[in-house]
Amino acid sequence: MRDRWIFKINWFRERLFFYSDYFLFVLLLMFKTYLLADLTGTVFYEYGVWGYIKNLFAFIFGGGSFNTIRSGLLMISLGYILLLSFWTLFFTRRKRIYILIILNALVSFVLFADVIHYRYFDGFISVALLLQAGQVGNLTDSIISLIQLKDILFWVDVFLTIPLFIFIWKKKWFAEKKRAIVAGILAFVIGWFCVQQPLHVFYQYGGKKILEKMIASESIYKFTGIYGYHFFDMKRNFEDYVLHKKRVSKERANEIDEWFSTNTGKTSPETFGIAEGKNLIVVQLEAIQDFVINREVEGQEITPYLNELIKDSAYFPNFYHQAAQGRTSDADLLVNTSLYPLATGSAFIRYSANEYDSISKVLKDDGYQATAHHAFKGSFWNRNSMYSSLEYDQFYSKEDYQPEETIGWGASDEDFFRQTVDMMPADKPFYSFMISLTSHHPYPMPKKHKVLNLDNVENELLENYLHSVHYVDQSIKVFVEELKQKGLWENSVVVFYGDHDAKVMEQGTNSETFVTGDKNEFELYKEYDQVPLVIHLPEDQLAGTYEKTGGQLHLAPTLLHMLGHETNDKYFMGKDLFLEGNRLVALRTGSVTNGKVWYQQAKDGIFSNGTCYEFETGKKIDIKECSSIYEEAQQQYRISDDIIFGNLIKKFK
């Protein structure tokens, strides 16, 4: 009997040692999965790791519920790790170690990328964004500013295993053994069970609908874990673009065509043609939000010049950015084509070869010269290709500017504005679309430009941002003076608007307090997405403050109507901002307003879990009051997506 027990113990100890590399791999990935949850502030398991172990023992010995084991992300994460790696057990130990070292490094990279992406976008990275990997080299400063000391924990073991990899390769330390088929099958079965049990419950509560929509990465993550999110994200992209590449039926195309004929093209009779024949200059301001307008800090105006300019211009304080993951490129798309951005990725990269209706096309048909200006690489956001599709006559990029001063990403805004004025044609009307650069995250500013006293701000990122915004404001002053000297100011419609939020409103910190003050929850939501819109016309026409709601989607028809262009035959989804009443403003986050109510979408993307506010008072009201604008927004998303996915404008022509 004693010999039998000794044999069993030795057998178990041998197997335990033989699979120790695999156990260590699983343990490391479980730790990194927990680390990701900790660094993103998401819930891994309600009672913590030790609480899970306690509940597990309670369940095994008959004193606990299986629900406590299945809930949270620990069980399903373990399952996905086993399903990801079970096949490595079919190899000899030496080969298995090679594979596990490489697999660990790859997963560590994805988890690290998820954390950095979450800090900036409040969501996890997707396949569509990975296709934009070429942009990463240009985002070095922003990425570095988002890295924290704890992040090194994703990489410590990866670097430690490099010498182990070399040692095994040279010494052949581990003896070869037969493939462990049984162990691999067992790992697969356990992994499958650990994944299927939580998913089964998720599906019972409407999980399939959530997975079909993929509205928000966190709505998937909170039920499936980070590995489940990536699995379903890859599955969706593979189905959409490989197995079932999206095609729009003729019937659906006809429906969309009919929608445009009945819902767009209306103009304000008071403003139509008010600036006919004038030049159009549109300036997209990098990360400029509305909370800086008419705002003082320590008795100093943050944007003194813009504060004066809006007195002689049409100013829209309830104007919102509608950009999604494509950020600056999304704002560009919204303003110039009046279509919504994609839910994931950027249309500039994924669909740059499409045919679009655009401001530049409409004005070129009327004899205008259309140019785009951005003092950065033309390849960034694939602008070289996209601007060709938008039919600009010329795109002036980094190579066309000779800056006297470089700030952050490139030429200072003052240099950019001065030199762009010199590029504007004098012999015929023109459309110049400009994208500023200096106020890009993380907002580095030379000491000589830090002229505001911000000692009491006590938040480095916010402090840098305010200095940056103040500098941009003064650069705009230089720009306007240059236009006046060239005789262009009184012969042009000049537009300034912010492209997206600045990511400086960190919840629960003094930066949020600075931005929102004592505002309520609803006003905070509004503030987060509000960007300034200033439209100046010759002789200060239409000067005043317009409280009606609007968004970037509505700019194209608004500007073209002022220049005397009908847009009934164009596929612009927006409506003239000067028409009576409010515009529907739908954000790709799922939130939407019509100026009467505001629907704030919950992170899980489920309508009933969101909140409905009365726009004027900010009071919470019955969620049903927001159902109609929510459904209208969803309809518009689908129409815009179908136009882009199916390249319908080309077919409509």
From TrEMBL:
<feature type="transmembrane region" description="Helical">
    <location>
        <begin position="152"/>
        <end position="169"/>
    </location>
</feature>
<keyword id="KW-1133">Transmembrane helix</keyword>
<dbReference type="InterPro" id="IPR012160">
    <property type="entry name" value="LtaS-like"/>
</dbReference>
<feature type="transmembrane region" description="Helical">
    <location>
        <begin position="97"/>
        <end position="116"/>
    </location>
</feature>
<keyword id="KW-1003">Cell membrane</keyword>
<keyword id="KW-0812">Transmembrane</keyword>
<protein>
    <submittedName>
        <fullName>LTA synthase family protein</fullName>
    </submittedName>
</protein>
<dbReference type="InterPro" id="IPR017850">
    <property type="entry name" value="Alkaline_phosphatase_core_sf"/>
</dbReference>
<dbReference type="Pfam" id="PF00884">
    <property type="entry name" value="Sulfatase"/>
</dbReference>
<feature type="domain" description="Sulfatase N-terminal">
    <location>
        <begin position="278"/>
        <end position="564"/>
    </location>
</feature>
<feature type="transmembrane region" description="Helical">
    <location>
        <begin position="16"/>
        <end position="37"/>
    </location>
</feature>
<dbReference type="InterPro" id="IPR000917">
    <property type="entry name" value="Sulfatase_N"/>
</dbReference>
<comment type="similarity">
    <text>Belongs to the LTA synthase family.</text>
</comment>
<keyword id="KW-0472">Membrane</keyword>
<feature type="transmembrane region" description="Helical">
    <location>
        <begin position="73"/>
        <end position="91"/>
    </location>
</feature>
<dbReference type="InterPro" id="IPR050448">
    <property type="entry name" value="OpgB/LTA_synthase_biosynth"/>
</dbReference>
<feature type="transmembrane region" description="Helical">
    <location>
        <begin position="181"/>
        <end position="203"/>
    </location>
</feature>
